[in-house]
Structure formats: structure tokens, C-alpha cells
Amino acid sequence: MEAAVLFDICNKFVLIPWLMLLVLPRWEWTEKIIFHAWIPMLLGVAYVYAFYQGFPTPEGGGFGSLAEVETLFSSSWLVVAGWIHYLAFDLFIGAWEVRDSQRRNIHHLLVVPCLALTFMAGPAGLLLYLLIRLATAKTLTTVETA
């Protein structure tokens, strides 16, 4: 398999779970497939595969400086691994936002923009959700039960 093929598969693969979070947040299959992290785990398998394919890493690549990271990402496989990292973690955070909003009785329509932003720009979507949570629930606690 080529790096571009795995990239395309993973990009398309996450669209259905995101749609489920957006329009079917309380459906039993949303809970079974997404809330129990099966999709992020499958993306984790793809991540490990892509990361492994990226070895040996380009000479001078690493995580110690911006220049080393840029060199690391000169490998198509390691770029795909990095992208899958985003896909998996953003989806995991989106699922957490939905679960947390349900526990705290935050209306789902308030969460939809957060999910869209989390899908496109992960940390910004999480920030928006936390601000909405602060405004509606009056807390930023990280405790999982409300």
C-alpha cells in the first residue's frame, strides 16, 4: 500500500463517525462504535503501520527542534502518520465533547459548532466547547461525572 492510499482511506473513514456525532449523538450504534473508541483504535492501528513504514527516519529528523520535525515530515509515510494522529485524537475529543455535553445536559445544537471546529481545527473546537461548557454549566472541572 502506498502512503497516499492510506491517507485517502483514513480521511474518508472518519467522515461517517463524525456525521454520527453530529446528527445521531444518542443512537446506540454511535455509543457502541465511537464512544467505546473502536474507530480511534482502528486509526491507531493505521498510525502504527504508517509510522513503521516511515522507518528509518530521514537523517536529521526528530522531535527536538522545528527543523528536526520538518525533516521528519519529509517522509510521506511520517506525514500520513502525523495526519492519522490528528484524525484519531480529534475524533476522540469530539466523542468526549458529545458524551460530556450529554452528562451535563448541554443542548446538542450548542455542541454542533464545536464538533465542526474540532473536526477542522481540533484544539480550537475543544476551546469553544469548554467555553460553552463554562457558560452553561458554570464549571471547567475535568471530573467525568456532573
What do these coordinates show?
This protein is mostly helical. It has one domain. About 75% of the residues lie in helices and about 0% in strands. The protein is built from seven helices and no strands. The N and C termini lie far apart (about 45 Å). The model has no long low-confidence stretch (mean pLDDT about 90).
Layout of strands and helices, then pairs:
Blueprint: H1 3-13, H2 15-23, H3 28-35, H4 38-53, H5 66-72, H6 76-103, H7 108-137
Could you write a compact summary of the structure shown?
The protein has 146 residues and is an all-alpha fold. The chain contains seven helices and no strands. It has one domain.
Keywords:
146 residues, mainly alpha
How many structural domains can be distinguished in the coordinates?
Answer: 1
What's the number of helices? Answer: 7
Give the H and E element order: HHHHHHH
Q: Average pLDDT value?
A: 92
- Give the termini distance in whole angstroms: 45 Å
Class of secondary structure makeup: mainly alpha
Shape: globular
Biggest sheet architecture: none
Given as residue ranges, the uncertain stretches (5+ residues, pLDDT < 50) are none
* Fraction of residues in β-strands: under 5%
| Total E-strand runs | 0
Query: Compute the gyration radius: what is it?
Result: 17 Å
Helix content range: over 70%
